[in-house]
Amino acid sequence: MLDPDRIRSRFPALREIGPTGLPVIHADAPGGTQAVDTAIEAIAGHLREGSANQHGAFAVSQRVDRLVARVRDQVAGFVGTEPDSVVFGPNMTTLTIHLARALEARIGPDDAIACTRLDHDANVSPWLTLAARTGATVRFIDLDPVSGRLDLGSLDAAIGPDTKLVTFPGASNALGTIVDPEPFVTAARAVGAWTFLDAVHLAPHAPIDRRAMGVDVLACSAYKFFGPHAGLLAADPALLADLAPDKLRPAPDTGPDRWQTGTASFEAIAGIGGALEYLDEVRMDAIVTHESDLTERFLSGVAPLRHVQLHGPAEATGRTPTFAVTLDGLTPTAVAEAFATHGINVWAGHYYALEPMRALGLLDAGGAVRIGFAHYHRTDDVDRVLEVLADLTR
Ligand SMILES: Cc1ncc(COP(=O)(O)O)c(C=O)c1O
User: Fold this and answer.
1) Tens of pLDDT along 83-111?
2) Could you give the angle at the alpha carbon of 154 between the alpha carbons of 151 and 157, nearest 5°?
3) Could you tell me if the CB of 202 is within 6 A of ligand 1?
4) Domain 4-35+284-391 bears CATH identifier 3.30.950.10
């Protein structure tokens, strides 16, 4: 069981008081979570104690070597991969574009790539660009706009013998839908295609295991799991070794460092280590249980509100506590502004989830309001959000 007050004391930014005299509710977790104290201290500690390039003859440099190796081990444990398959980068988008560029040599005009209508654009545009540069075809796996889940019936049409790459999300940053990787991995394996999982929205909400899931590559971002702005890519080491990423001549020719362009942000790597130390302590199963309480409370509170439409899964299972809603007679921006006057931070628009928003018919209508909780929220935070939603009728 999580102790909400103890949890909250670990997040200094959650102490902010809003315009009504109550603590601000940062209900924009899918846009980025607040940083935990161990991440903040690790970043500051690294800079305070001194930093240097890796692989030098002196002590500070060797400390940085040990830091990078230690955090690679931690990340490997967190996402279920081999330490030498962990690549650090500025964010998920940059790492994905980097990988897509490296795949250009392996994809041709007779090949196809499968994308989904549930993904954030960081798991769509890099593949559209790859296809445009190589002449490959992109086929989409459809989204059922009513259930907010991917239509597995469209898998067969989207994945065929020409498919070289199957991409899909771990969870939707717009609708909160959690995606079971199994059917995608099975369909990809049947035709010998690589799989790429966008684990950004899944990482703070559910356990991830790249090897157990059977995916070749996954990517996520530490600022979505209580750490600093930094990205992570984890891949089958054989695939990483086999591809030839863009790199400088003197940069390493082997190992994950071969994939890291320029000097890494060692302070961010230290911060990732701090965030993962915290997650080890709290335990993901406790997070899952607490978040499922938050989800049930929100769903049962929102259902009777006739002026509020929930987009995405209406059931508490197989989803994160991320909710897209629209309100009769109010634009999403007007709703977000009204929330802000109550000291509640929610996002309005499409949050780069172009495909799902288009599939739901919301893209040209200003998108939707996204209310996104994390494990550091309490049930009374959910109640405050519901009270504002209820009042927005009148
Ligand atoms: C599901 C999902 N994928 C990818 C991204 C892009 O991540 P980054 O900002 O690290 O590039 C985001 C960011 O919001 C996201 O929510």
Assistant:
1) 999 999 999 999 999 999 999 999 999 99
2) 170
3) no
4) no
